[in-house]
Design brief:
CATH superfamily: MFS general substrate transporter like domains
Strand content: under 5%
Oligomer: single chain
Shape: globular
Order of helices and strands: HHHHHHHHEEHHHHHHHHHHHHHHHHH
CATH class: Mainly Alpha
CATH topology: Growth Hormone, Chain: A
Number of domains: 1
Radius of gyration: 22 Å
Strand order of the largest sheet: 1-2
Largest sheet: 2 strands, antiparallel
Number of strands: 2
Length: about 475
């Protein structure tokens, strides 16, 4: 958030640590960790496991489509906003009931993935042979769906639990810290663990770690605002006339009424902003495997200098927002994000050099950390009180929808580039360069957003 909008910058990690004695802040840290756990386990990390099991790049790309659940969560977010979770809702309340249900489903499905494994072959179930990869993919889809549901509720809990804009900034920073910690575990530490004990045990352990979220749900308190925005706090029947209609349509109408014609530009910027990262994502870990970089090296670099670079990028984005305003920071991230993909293009041509690999990871992590903070803060500033869960789900869905549709074809793209007579690494290099080029439209749209102000909404055009 920018100073032009009258909000203070989100507190840093020192303020977060100092505030962990507050019940809601500690709960937010643990819920942020739980929210971040599943996403790489059904995404980029899963690609490393599959490639080591000799699964084709095209199949790895197609399976990344399970991540569309995160981008389509706005479809069921109205129900989560207005209905209690089965059984658990009466015990824990609307927000915590859905959290608990989602966390238990994620944990069980991750254990199921560990048991099934991504292999060619078939499984015998009730006397019927079922393709093993199909079963594995179905379990990954269950994880993604339940994880997306958890995100809907945690975002709503965070926004509704804050007593002031300052506390909202504190909870947002705390959530980001926990989320980043989970990404470190599932993107780096798991590779080191898998090198020692194997992928099966590693994924089983990740399922057990979802217990952190279960504990946080029990520890947290139900926010007083939950379920009270547009209807009574009692559950709304699924097809109950105006209540259900408002739950589904109201958030979208309110968003376009609030932002007018600028709403379309905002949604377009959000949908294109991280497109290069999404398209590249499924091929990153298979690329390392094909390049000949072992899991331990990838995990160690990500968990050390990669982590430092991410923190530096997050800090740089925060300082930039305070000094220059939010949309200029958004514009800088639109350039840095796709530009970092060119480092991987160079790495593919250079070969398995640990120094070059480390440099590429530092560049990528810094730029991703910077661009991620800029975009999440911008989306958070656009929500309307009364529809927090659904509107944030809408914005975060637009942020990823197009990229997650296109990234399923990433494996096909690399295989087609290789089929043109190039080596596999040359194909990877061209592919990464192409992903950088698709970031150009977002840069141009951010320039429009930065140089024009919508009438009657001072500061939105210039500062978001």
């Amino acid at each position: 958030m920018s100073p032009e909008n009258g909000h203070k910058a989100a507190p840093g990690w020192r303020a977060v640590v100092a505030s962990l004695r507050q019940r809601k802040v500690l709960a937010m840290l643990l819920l942020g960790f739980s929210s971040g756990m599943p996403i790489y386990l059904v995404g980029n990390t899963l690609g490393f496991w599959m490639r080591e099991n000799a699964i084709e790049l095209s199949t790895i790309g197609f399976l990344s489509w399970v991540g569309l659940a995160y981008s389509l969560k706005f479809l069921w977010a109205p129900l989560v906003d207005k209905l209690d979770a089965p059984l658990l809702g009466r015990w824990l309340g609307r927000r915590r009931g859905w959290m608990m249900l989602a966390q238990l489903v994620v944990a069980l499905a991750l254990v199921g993935m560990a048991l099934v494994q991504p292999r060619e072959g078939s499984l015998l179930f009730a006397g019927v042979r079922i393709d093993q990869l199909v079963v594995f993919g179905a379990l990954a889809l269950v994880v993604a769906f339940a994880s997306a549901t958890q995100d809907i509720v945690i975002d709503a809990w965070r926004i509704e639990s804050a007593d002031s804009p300052e506390q909202q900034g504190l909870l947002t920073s705390t959530s980001t810290l926990g989320y980043r910690g989970a990404l470190l575990v599932t993107d780096a530490l798991i590779l080191i663990i898998a090198a020692q004990v194997g992928w099966v045990a590693s994924y089983g352990l990740m399922g057990l770690l979802m217990g952190v979220g279960v504990f946080a749900t029990l520890y947290a308190r139900e926010p007083a605002a939950a379920g009270s925005a547009t209807a009574a706090a009692t559950p709304v029947p699924l097809l109950s006339g105006r209540g259900a209609l408002d739950a589904v349509v109201g958030p979208f109408v309110a968003f376009f009424r609030q932002h007018g014609s600028w709403a379309l530009l905002m949604l377009l910027v959000i949908s294109l902003y991280r497109l290069p990262d999404f398209v590249m994502g499924p091929m990153a870990n298979p690329f390392y495997a094909d390049l000949g970089i072992d899991k331990e090296t990838v995990g160690a670099v990500r968990g050390s200098v990669g982590l430092v670079a991410t923190i530096a990028g997050v800090a740089a984005a925060g300082l930039s927002a305070v000094r220059f305003g939010f949309v200029p920071t958004l514009l800088a991230g639109a350039v840095l994000g796709p530009g970092s993909n060119l480092a991987f293009s160079y790495l593919a041509l250079h070969g398995a050099d640990e120094g070059v690999f480390t440099a590429a990871m530092v560049i990528d992590n810094f730029c991703s950390g910077y661009a991620g903070v800029a975009l999440v803060g911008y989306m958070s500033s656009l929500t309307n009180v009364g529809y927090t869960a659904t509107q944030y789900a809408l914005l975060s869905s637009f942020y990823a929808l197009l990229g997650k549709v296109l990234k399923g074809l990433s494996g096909v793209a690399v295989e087609q580039l290789e089929a043109g007579g190039r080596s596999l690494l040359e194909a990877y290099s061209l592919f990464f360069a192409g992903t950088a080029a698709v970031g150009v439209p977002a840069v141009l749209l951010c320039i429009v957003l930065a140089t024009r102000r919508p009438p009657g909404r001072p500061g939105v055009g210039a500062a978001g």
